[in-house]
Write a structure and sequence with these properties.
This protein has helices at about 15-25, 40-50, 65-75, 95-100, 120-125, 165-185, and strands at about 1-10, 30-35, 55, 85, 105-110, 130-140, 150-155, 190-195, 195-200, 200-205, 210. The chain is α/β, with parallel strands linked by helices. The protein has an eight-stranded mixed beta sheet with strand order 3-2-1-4-5-6-7-11, covered by helices on one side. It has a three-stranded antiparallel beta sheet with strand order 8-9-10. Strand 1, helix 1 and strand 2 form a beta-alpha-beta unit. The two termini are about 30 Å apart.
Length: about 210
């Protein structure tokens, strides 16, 4: 059984989707640890209810990002993970952390990458008058939201949508997409190589696999 560690900063809805997929047998893995940089993150309660070990490592008190990331590497390695999953972990990671787990480090981002890296993606899509929006799962590299895209799910932007309604649509797709991609990885179907994402031995296109 592959071992997954999830990093969070907030509510942990994607964490819950992964926990549920493991419990249902749809994801042949076990979440063995949840790490948060914020002690009041609701995702810690989700983990505790599921009997998963939690750890809070606040970024406050560290002199720089690199020293925090070095401590984070040590904390995560303590769980002996096969896969490290970022699920709303609101930290820009340095090469200290990324280098320790590259190739087995995933992130989910609420846009159709390479569009709208960074924050406020839903409002930015609305401001640009886009007809569609969505979510991407990608391997993490040192470039912010810039690692190779594995898979995407799209949603239509309809008249009357605002940032909140659009976020709700995207969240529903996130909770389907993230466990699916984690399953590909733990089943040995998904790898990163030559700066690209590979599924079943085939290189994926720049925008990854489209599930809808």
């Amino acid at each position: 059984m592959k071992r997954i560690v999830v990093l969070i900063s907030g509510s942990g809805s994607n964490l819950q989707a992964i926990i549920d997929a493991c419990s249902a047998g749809n994801l042949q893995a076990q979440v063995v640890g949840v790490v948060s940089n914020k002690g009041d993150a609701y995702g810690l309660e989700r983990a505790a209810k599921a009997g998963i070990e939690t750890l809070v490592l606040s970024h406050k008190g560290f002199g720089d990002r690199e020293s925090y990331d070095a401590a984070l590497v040590e904390a995560v390695n303590g769980f002996e993970p096969d896969l490290v999953v970022l699920a709303g972990f609101m930290r820009i990671l340095t090469p200290v952390f990324v280098g320790a787990f590259e190739g087995r480090l995933l992130n989910i981002h609420p846009s159709l990458l390479p569009k709208y890296k960074g924050l406020h993606t839903h409002q930015r899509a609305l401001d640009e008058g886009d007809a569609e929006h969505g979510v991407s799962v990608h391997f993490v590299t040192a470039e912010l939201d810039g690692g190779p895209v594995i898979a995407q799910a799209k949603v239509a932007i309809e008249a009357g949508d605002d940032a909140d309604s659009l976020a709700q649509k995207v969240h529903r797709q996130e909770h389907i997409l993230y466990p699916l991609v984690c399953g590909w990885f733990v089943d040995g179907r998904l790898q990163m190589g030559e700066g690209r994402a590979w599924l079943d031995g085939q290189v994926l296109p720049p925008c990854g696999y489209a599930i809808n």
